Amino acid sequence: MILELQAGLSPTEIQQLAEKYRAEQVQWNGSALLLTDSSIHQIDQQDADSFRQTIDTGSDIQLAHRDWQPQSTGITIGEHAIGGQSNKTLLMAGPCAVESREQAMHTAQYLAQQGVTVFRAGAFKSRTSPYTFQGLGQEGLEILDEIRTATGMQIITEVRDATHVDAVIETTDIIQVGAKAMYDHGILRACASARKPVLLKRHFGATLQEFVQAAEFILMGGNREVILCERGIRTFEKRTRFTIDLTGVAWLKQHVHLPIVVDPSHAMGLSYGVPDLTRAAVAMGVAGVLLEVHANPAKALSDAAQQLSFQEFDQLKPSLHAVAEAIGYQLC
Ligand code: PEP
Ligand code: MN
Q: How far is the CA of 96 from the centre of ligand 1 (A)?
């Protein structure tokens, strides 16, 4: 339950109520809140005067729930506002990984010319095998910094583990929490105290409830700027890399006020399916799409099969503008 405290209670009174309801204390837009777990559905009548309002969302999706905040959260990324009332779909694109200065800069300059304002690329890669390319690490972050200066693009890059969380948070404009890191509470808590937007990817084995609960860690820790990213879940299907859960996106749009982004590249795992899936995601009125684009996909050091070539990206982009316009959105 969300228990919004009346103004004027003493710290001791608040502490007593927090202990009684085993609640976390959180500040939200000037209001003091107590957040209980989902086993508590009502308060004692004798405490009623202490609360301005009490909201039972029915689960531990609380601060992210539209029952608490009906209006969509807006987040500013560089020159663009997404979510909120903006009706904008932000195109974020770049290679899976920073492989070298030349490769990343070349791709960033190409994308900047195409009007893309957010460059995505991993410096610390979260790989399933320890024998594959793990990213350039710190050197990759320095290259991303140079790309920001050279192109003016915003940077999104992922935090893989606790060893470099501060370095990534310092360098990037948007912190990407990778699918496998969705359950890493050290990373979630570090993101909670960061003053930058966080793009939280859904773990491929996470239910929607678990996904949004991970976001709750960031929200209740003090960072309101959380973007949820659907990137495919694991089902019985083996022909595609994952299964894109657009039904989940529809559920999230209805119940959760945070901006929602779709990553069709990792969901499909095969570049030929990415254009159709991206159009489908844009047609749902999402706040953004995340696409992998590489100058020479066949030679990519990670996720080679799913990255779009420059030519494929050129062909796709006009149709995304058209789909966005058809539903009253603007691709930016
Ligand atoms: C990525 O964005 O390159 C990535 C590793 O994605 P995910 O965490 O969704 O697997
Ligand atoms: Mn990738």
A: 8
Query: What pLDDT score was predicted for residue 298?
Result: 98
Indicate which residue's Cα is closest to atom 3 of ligand 1: 96
Q: Which of 237, 302, 292 is nearest to 265 (CA)?
A: 292
DSSP 121-167: -BSS---SSTTS----THHHHHHHHHHHHHH--EEEEEE-SGGGHHH
Give the distance from CA 156 to its chain's centroid. 10
| Residue 133, token pair as written in the block | 């390319």
Q: Residue 273 corresponds to which tokens in the numbers above?
A: 């399916």
- pLDDT at position 17 over 90: yes
Residue list, CB under 5 A from ion ligand 2:
96, 303
**DSSP assignment letter at 296:** S
pLDDT in tens, 30-86: 899 999 999 999 999 999 999 999 999 999 999 999 999 999 999 999 999 999 999
Q: Over the chain, what is the mean pLDDT?
A: 97
- pLDDT of 117 reads 98
Alpha carbon 111 to its chain's center:
21
Q: CB-based contacts of 183: which residues, under 8 Å, 6+ apart?
A: 203, 206, 214
Q: How far is CA 324 from the centre of its chain?
A: 20
Report how far residue 259's alpha carbon sits from residue 251's, in angstroms, rounded to the nearest whole number: 13
Distances (CA, A) of 225 to 59, 84, 199: 21, 12, 9
> C-alpha 52: how far from its chain's center?
32
Any atom of ligand 1 within 6 Å of the Cβ of 126: yes
What pLDDT was estimated at residue 263? 98
pLDDT at 3 (0 to 100): 98
Q: Where are the alpha helices (DSSP H) in 21-159?
A: 101-113, 138-151
Q: Does 120 sit in the ligand 1 pocket, CB within 6 Å?
A: no
